[in-house]
Amino acid sequence: MILIEGEKAAEALKALGVNAVGTVTGAASQPSDEALKPLAAFERIYLWPDNDGPGRDHMLRIGDRFQRLEAKDVRVLEWCDAPEHGDAADFIEHYGDRAREKLRELVAVAQPSRRGLRTCRRSRRSALKRPPRHHSRRRPGLAPTYPT
Question: Ramachandran region of residue 51, left (φ > 0), alpha (ψ -120 to 50) or beta?
């Protein structure tokens, strides 16, 4: 199960057949323990932050909450070549037909969330700035998506 920031990214993963849940609280806050508790029952949870400071902090705080909720295995996915503010939807768009294969590679090297995020070496291409995205305001909590 992959927990990501935003419904657009969750929908993109769903299109690949991946079990994903998107937070809809925005990076400044986290879903409640009540909302996260059912997810803590998964054998392994992957956190996929947006590629920006608020997105990384958001997922690390959620990782801490999962630890308090006694989740078995919480890991962080890091797309080192992501553009600024890049997320799972951008990853899938970038890799196209190879997205599923590349996602498997990210999963294979995912580190436990308690170790934090490693600093990826940024390529010249990924250092290009993108304009910030505007997220619609939604109710706090989670927006689940399930494979069809």
Answer: beta
